[in-house]
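Incident review: delayed structure delivery

Summary: a single-chain prediction request sat in the queue longer than the usual turnaround. Root cause was a stuck worker, restarted by the on-call engineer. No data loss occurred. The affected request and its eventual output are reproduced below so the record is complete for anyone auditing the incident later.

Affected input:
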Amino acid sequence: MSSLFDLQGKTALITGSSRGIGRAIAERMAEHGARVVISSRKIAACEEVAQGIIGRGGQAIALACNVSNKEELQNLVAATRSAYGKIDVLVCNAAVNPHYGPSQEIPDNAFEKVMDCNIRSNHWLCQMVIPEMAERGDGAVIIVSSIGGLKGSSVLGAYAISKAADMQMARNLAVEWGPRNVRVNCIAPGLIRTDFARALWENPETYQRTVAHYPLRRIGESDEIAGAAVFLASRAGSFVTGQSIVVDGGATIAS
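Output delivered after worker restart:
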């Protein structure tokens, strides 16, 4: 009997996968048998991750892409199909947050950058990839959101708006494409030990102030998000769609 988490024969395209959460998702999906596409802006970083996966017996290719550029996304999708023939799992992980502070102070270009990268690129990718999944009657889309999309924030305004929009995107697409057996879900991480969130955990004082209210009294690791992604991509998650799976050490349930 095959494992509920078996991804043999599946192709997974993962954006923002040269480091942090995206890298962990790619590495763990490869361990479960998926052919993975490593993608971020810098090809050298992508190749390093891909070669590491190949060296451990997995299958991977590296493709550079700026997700804010529609033509580059189209090329990414086309190159993935050229290499592996199909896309079974799409993980929209790439995101930016160029502004930390009150919404009143965010420059227009920073706001636009957040919306372009965190929402519009995911919308574009889903438009490009979901129809082929629907044609086969099988596919899984995972959008990496954030608990920022569930809470108010005085310093992460635009980012939080974008992450809430990702959750609604997943709900909409789950309703649209569910009849064709395409599942669309979000993962909403809490504070995870990544370079992206370094400012929130590197300072011991900030760290302690943050985790003091977490029931588990610690922040998460990238692998702990990767496990949720493997679940949602595999047969284990085949009856889950339109959901936002919170992986936050209990942060959102504590005062």
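Verification: The CA atoms of residues 31 and 97 lie 30 Å apart.
Action items: add queue-age alerting; document worker restart procedure.
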